[in-house]
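Translate sequence into structure tokens.
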Amino acid sequence: MGIPIRHPLIDEVTPHVVRIDSRAVVVRLSPPLAELLARPALGGRRFVLVTPDTSRLTIGLRAALVAAGGVWAVTTPTGFRDGITRVERASIDDAVEPPVAPPGQEADGSQPAALREQAVAETTQLSIDVALLHAEAHDTVLGGALEALADAVSGTKPLVWGRTEPLDHVWDRWVLTQDARHRAPVPSRILVEGDRLSAAVTARVSDEGIEETIALTVEVPGGIEGLDRAIDRLRAALAELSRRSTPTFALVLARVGEPDRCLRPVEYPPPNPVALLIGAPSVARLDLDSRDFAGEQDVVVVGRPAEPAYLLTLGSAASSGWERLNDALNSVGGEPIDRRGERDPHAP
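Result follows.
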């Protein structure tokens, strides 16, 4: 038996962690890093990407790190800080432990807001998470929903796509669909960039057909002053998508972020949910009726007559949508969402 060779990007293996160090200003999903994150971590350990506080992650790397159950740890004079939750950690192994709230810290284990570095970011963005179901047919082509939603928000189009960064393929829906077909039944995850947009798209074959999930971030033209108009255009696009295709779910968050849509290890203002789509397959599965929602909910029936979907207005540029969102989720038996709008990076 040969001697196992450690992956060249692995800097340390501890009892709980596979450590990956980077000092790059922008940390991207390079081919070697993508290959490493796609592997099962050694002995149930978690990947931890360690950077200085001057680094920022691309959306593509963050998506891959979260998909791998990994954590972003930022070095500090006393140890580490979670790059997403900002929770302070004494050691690298602590970085993968669930947050604890000792005296002087908040309920999620993070430092009080006054002690955190606040983001100086002024770019208004809409983040759209949408899942669609396609028939497993020869004429199915991926990427149409991404094009329509990006165009609705800002009139922009995808330009390039790829599996690792920098992205190396000119945007072509037919080509990326054929690439996904050739990889089936293994799920296909691609990254997309365009003028003022970044996205991650996953396609997988299920018993119901081809499931396409899109996580899209688009800059809003005109900043906060143009936000409500962009939300109206996006709601119209979601209604049209429900008529022409089969989305199962969509959630839209307004947020403030970086012009390049990367993530820095600082405290950003919490996102604001502005729209929720419960697609026809979910309506049927949950046996929903518009009367199941509270009277104060703004619910519009969209989609095809025989396959209704429900589009809910939540927040706006001037009002928070969190109460309406969690009321809507409660109406359909869903779990509340954390107001940071983040998946717990410590959940495996």
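Note: The chain has two domains: 12-112, 123-331.
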